[in-house]
């Protein structure tokens, strides 16, 4: 098939491309190195997946996000497209089989974490693969000017030396001019490269900031005024549960989500929200990546984000269906001091980094020079308790060691149980005859998965096998473990705990290879990004959307007309219209109590945003109040 649209319709079931997707795909098909800056929800994956489907060979996709990697592999598999992943937490044997599938051409997409590119196992195999495209997702990670710098990304250029004729596409949701320039330079784009950038303006999204001493009251007003699915972002895991519990008590159905929950808990909470079983998701920033729920009407931040990049990405989860939506920040003066303290804490000093690294080596009992590429289950609470450390400081130091390319730290790592037959069919048959106890289980596995068990690892469910064989889960687990010990199979039990992976061999903590200049510059950059965030929330004179566009280097003189600043200006310019709205609202509410929706229907205002702003102002002034079922009523003024 030579038409990208046919591919899109066949596998993705979309009738047409989103803005810029077709142009990006044509640039890739013309073998031009390409940088695509598409905001959250802009359909970045289609930009490399469709052209890869049109070319012979495997597409290598580099991404640091294991959860997103797994989501994309499963999504492609559901479409009937073979995809594999190689990341921290996999055994050498499992990696070996995954890479073999690419060498022999059975896998169309190979998702790999940047740390794995430097391994000898990968570098030897990749030269035997027919590679049609290299896709670098989250490309801003290559730039130390970016908000999520990862040194292993700097090694991607080495892959280009091994595959000199293969085109490359780099994708990101947010990049300043400095970061874009860095991506092009560090990935060694060829001279004929192209850059595509969608505007950062979101025509249907109203950005709103409210300074308030009563966030709960203001949050309830937001959820009352704007019906439909909502996401509420908070900073701590504890707050997710507290806010969700409080909302449920007020009969607003809410779930909560953070990286400390089990896989089943996260999946259940997410699934219930996705199918509108619960209206509100209260979450830390661990939630949202890879989630495509188009009808989110409101995203509310109850704590200040650390930078505009992450805020824009999280806020952009509202209104992906193109209908009117709101991105709201609720803050009070103390939040600014809290943010400054958090950013300072996120950059621990060098002696503390060395102390923490040595503690990790002791915790896992690692000899110097060992553990390269190895992953370990990690309980941050027991670790902090054992070494008398503060959890928040440990977390910051782990992220900084990750940023320096020494380790990776996955807060929520889930891997289902997997199985692979080590024996050839004839050898396995002889084993079954000699070991009758295992024969029913092996037959059941072959009936369920067939030859896949010989060629690679398959995901299994001990629960399902137990029900099918009328045994207990403990019996199934015991037999699989025994088969593993007898070298008949490779059985990898499920994992559902945070992981620490040593990217480099265990170092001497006193001579830790830290880039001191970079650490200093990264702290200064974080402070600058924080100041830009503070300027965004405290500004009362410039369009919010324009502030965001300016931050990302997009020149514009056209205000959005929807943010709180634009509405305030419009209200000032249209004082007569606002006064008429106030009078009409008061008149109608003196006759009977009404919801804001009923009021809007009765008045049918020309300017909906101005109408909403007038109601907000009247509530703030105490002229109007909400009753217990969220109807508006007037308050009689005392004489």
Secondary-structure blueprint of this entry?
Blueprint: H1 4-12, H2 21-29, E1 34-37, H3 44-53, E2 58-62, H4 66-78, E3 83-86, H5 92-103, E4 109-112, H6 120-126, E5 131-136, H7 156-162, E6 168-172, H8 177-186, E7 194-197, E8 205-211, H9 215-225, E9 230-233, H10 237-249, E10 254-257, H11 263-274, E11 280-283, E12 298-301, H12 308-315, E13 325-331, H13 333-345, H14 350-363, E14 375-377, H15 380-386, H16 391-403, E15 407-410, E16 414-415, E17 418-421, H17 425-434, H18 439-449, H19 452-455, E18 458-459, H20 462-469, H21 473-485, E19 489-492, E20 495-496, E21 499-502, H22 516-538, H23 544-551, H24 564-573, H25 575-591, H26 596-603, H27 608-621, E22 624-626, E23 632-634
Parallel strand pairs: 1-6, 1-7, 2-4, 2-5, 3-4, 5-6, 8-13, 9-11, 9-12, 10-11, 12-13
Antiparallel strand pairs: 14-21, 15-21, 16-20, 17-18, 17-19, 22-23
Helix pairs in contact: 2-3, 5-6, 13-22, 14-16, 20-21, 24-25, 24-27, 25-27
Summarize the structure.
By secondary structure, this protein is α/β, with parallel strands linked by helices.
Description:
There is one protein chain. With 639 residues, the protein is α/β, with parallel strands linked by helices. The chain folds into 5 domains: 4-197, Rossmann fold (3-Layer(aba) Sandwich), CATH 3.40.50; 205-331, P-loop containing nucleotide triphosphate hydrolases (Rossmann fold, 3-Layer(aba) Sandwich), CATH 3.40.50.300; 342-414 and 497-525, Orthogonal Bundle (Arc Repressor Mutant, subunit A); 417-493; 574-634, Arc Repressor Mutant, subunit A (Orthogonal Bundle). Helices cover 46% and strands 15% of the residues. It has 27 helices and 23 strands. Strands 3-4-2-5-6-1-7 form a 7-stranded parallel beta sheet, sandwiched between helices. A hairpin with a 5-residue loop joins strand 22 (624-626) and strand 23. Helix 2 runs parallel beside helix 3 (44-53). The longest helix has 23 residues, at 516-538. The radius of gyration is 27 Å and the shape is globular. The termini are far apart. The mean pLDDT is 92.
